[in-house]
């Protein structure tokens, strides 16, 4: 039997644990992440000749180095030997949810989106063009209801397919010409350094501009660390000069601009938002 390791990732309260419980039933094991006080739930099940091992990742809004939960999640994506990351998304709060999605795209995660709670989105009058969203994101988007266990067949067969696909490491994010060009200047230096090959060079470049402690430490100790840091400092200064904001904010704004564009192209909303009780 083939084996498929899946991580469930998403914001808090989007239905990750509901999906995890529906899939793995009684076959669960709860412990801690090695050396961390963060709970790690894993489980397994067989489906169509595939043995799925599922890890329920902590709920996150970002993948920065600011919290243990975020570090646990990103380390799992970077070196957890997972085949696919299933990004559980609350369709009724797409903008906030996509902010994490975009960061997993930066990281080069092999993603499948499980679009949950679409009934709430519909109650708000939001009509999501799932096919268009999938095409623009560059990975499959499957509608599910975690609670009612609908969409699970399609989700699992899609995950199985995605697991055997070679990882597409090209980044489909449009972050504006100015930022993109400067990220690229840093990225090519990282790409040339063989000691920095274990993770997406695009992600490393973005994290350096974001002042990410863990990535900074690693790059500073690499063979071309000085050269890379000279470039990062020059680019940071340049971005502050033209945007009047620290690079971390410039990058956050670029992510939101990308998400905004994506939502405009794929979600029909009523002219006046309907009030809802959720
Ligand atoms: P997690 O924080 O992402 O693990 O989310 P949970 O699985 O704990 O779910 C959070 C809340 O959303 C719970 O009250 C669930 O019952 C509810 N929930 C999960 N999936 C669905 C769904 O498909 N539809 C609805 N209406 N509620 C859901
Ligand atoms: Mg949970
Ligand atoms: K490299």
UniProtKB/TrEMBL annotation:
Residues reported to bind GTP 4: 116-119
Binding positions for GTP 1 per the UniProt entry: 10-17
Entire-sequence positions represented here: 1 to 278 of 671
UniProt-annotated binding residues for GTP 3: 56-59
Residue numbers binding GTP 2: 35-39
Domain annotation FeoB-type G: ranges: 3-165
Descriptive protein name: Ferrous iron transport protein B
Localization (cell): Cell inner membrane
Organism of provenance: Methanobrevibacter woesei
Binding-site residues, Mg(2+): 21, 24-25
């Amino acid at each position: 039997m083939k084996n498929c390791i899946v991580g469930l990732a998403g914001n808090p309260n989007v239905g990750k644990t509901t999906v995890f419980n529906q899939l793995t039933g009684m076959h669960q094991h709860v412990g801690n992440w090695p050396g961390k006080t963060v709970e790690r739930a894993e489980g397994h099940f067989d489906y169509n000749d595939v043995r799925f091992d599922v890890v329920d990742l902590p709920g996150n809004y970002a993948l920065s180095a600011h919290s243990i939960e975020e570090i646990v999640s990103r380390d799992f994506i970077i070196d957890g030997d997972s085949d696919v990351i299933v990004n559980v998304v609350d369709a009724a709060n797409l903008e906030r949810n996509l902010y994490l999605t975009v960061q997993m795209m930066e990281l080069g995660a092999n993603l499948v989106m499980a679009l949950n709670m679409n009934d709430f989105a519909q109650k708000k009058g939001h009509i999501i063009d799932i096919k268009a969203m999938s095409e623009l994101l560059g990975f499959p988007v499957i509608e599910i209801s975690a609670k009612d266990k609908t969409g699970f067949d399609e989700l699992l067969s899609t995950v199985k397919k995605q697991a055997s696909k070679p990882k597409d490491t090209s980044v489909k994010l449009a972050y504006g010409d100015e930022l993109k060009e400067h990220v690229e200047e840093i990225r090519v230096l990282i790409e040339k350094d063989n000691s920095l090959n274990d993770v997406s060079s695009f992600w490393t470049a973005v994290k350096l501009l974001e002042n990410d402690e863990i990535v900074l430490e690693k790059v500073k100790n690499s063979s071309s660390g000085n050269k890379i840091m000279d470039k990062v400092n020059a680019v940071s200064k340049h971005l502050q000069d033209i945007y009047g904001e620290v690079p971390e904010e410039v990058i956050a704004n670029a992510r939101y601009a990308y998400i905004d564009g994506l939502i405009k192209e794929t979600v029909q909303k009523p002219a006046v938002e309907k009030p809802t009780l959720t």
